[in-house]
Amino acid sequence: MSSLTLNLGFWALPLRAQPIRYIFELAQYPYQQTNYTFKESKEWFEKDKKELGLDFPNLPYLIHGDFKITETQNIINYALDITKQQNLQGYGLTRYKVDNVRFLCDELIAKIFLASTKTGEEKKAEINNSVNPKLKYLQGALGNKQFFFEDKLTLADIYVYTAVNGLQHLLNDEYKQFVQTFGPFMKNFEEIPLIKAYHSSNRYPKLS
Ligand SMILES: N[C@@H](CCC(=O)N[C@@H](CS)C(=O)NCC(=O)O)C(=O)O
To answer: Tag placement on the chain: N or C end, fewer CB within 10 Å?
Structure first.
């Protein structure tokens, strides 16, 4: 299975599909990427969306040999399986706590991006209704810990890092009120050796 080429298709942004990239990076699992840009969005909408043979074309998609799937959470599950990193889901009841954060952040990441595309009152409303309340819940759940659960890295940390990194770059004014809680958490994640190496590699699609 692992000798087959695995390709992850998404926008060249560290947003919704970014946790999938972290899962491969943390396992040092070989993967390729097709990172589409908004400027050349025709590559996706006019070409690959029609031609890749996906049953339910969307971004992200994963193609592993002849096996083709979409839906972010489906791809996350597959990536955890093939990299044998089910430990990132936690154990026992913690699994459901981890997934609580995972699914909340999946939505939050999309809302942060959406808010960043708006202006004026519309932007303010999106931030006040959909973004900041969730960040406050996360802030309360993290407290002054370095990891969300069991003193070790789980998918919850990967998801919160991705969301807060999006906030920091796309809605920087909002990030300021959360920096005291999330600053040390972000730094802790960035200091993980495999993450550090990945962030400075050309495989990491940076924001701005
Ligand atoms: N339910 C899907 C939603 C995917 C989605 O909304 N993808 C956006 C980017 S976050 C996109 O640009 N899709 C490309 C398309 O609609 O063709 C998932 O969780 O993967």
So the answer is: C
